[in-house]
User: Fold Phosphoribosylpyrophosphate synthetase from Pontibacter flavimaris.
Amino acid sequence: MEDKVELTSMINVLARLRKEGYTEDFRVTEDGGRLCTLNGSQTFTPEQVQIVNFYRFEGDSYPGDMAILYVLETGSGAKGTMSDAYGTYGDEMVENFMRKVKDLGKNLDKHK
Assistant:
């Protein structure tokens, strides 16, 4: 079992995930139908993506400053992360795409 690590910021979490091989940065395409690598070299349908884990962050000074970091793996073996605002300021296309993705990690509340 993994040792407990203090994960206070998204930067700390990303650094640890990069060491674990989650090196790709993902985004949802402009039409909202696919996930792609930041450089656009690979794209994936929701069926080709799995949520391995996710982390929620809340700003220290402003509770409305919330973010979620998804830890993702694809059918091609690409592993990486994608972040989004969480709650009121979340990107609707990202939320709609992620609702279609298989969740292997924590119990992701897909019906906020």
